[in-house]
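Marked as duplicate of an earlier ticket. Keeping the data here for the record.
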Amino acid sequence: MKSLTGQLAQYAGYHRDRRNIATHLVGIPLIVWSIAVLLSRPSVTIGLAAVSPSSAVFALLITYYILLDAVLGLYMAGLIAILLFLASWTGNLPTAAWLATGIAAFVIGWAFQFLGHYYEGRKPAFVDDIVGLAIGPLFVGVELLFLLGYRKQLSEQIDAIAGPMRG
């Protein structure tokens, strides 16, 4: 398994245009949320938690993030928990509204992604490495931390490997 820096630097190599990163800050959360919505059924309530296929998928993703970096993994668990809560609520809508909401968010999220890669002039990272689909949400979460001034050393390491930003 590649290191956290290696995974993020490889992904960042496909995302050096600031406009592309900006579109990803919108598109990836929409896609993640839409997947959580679409996998929110069926669900079973256990205590205060709704357990669904979405819970299982995201538990695996969070486990992967924790293996890469425990602190970032827990941070991502918090962000994903918010998305899962919202998805669970959306999963309780009538079937047509649930499905339309999930599909619309998925399509809009991917539209943002492809717009960003149009700016970038480069294909999405997952085309060359399917793990990019799992790293994308982590990349967005880490970019938010970088914007807030956190994990500066990690940011510098990624930029040293991936190259300079454009735009």
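See parent ticket for discussion. The chain has one domain: 4-162.
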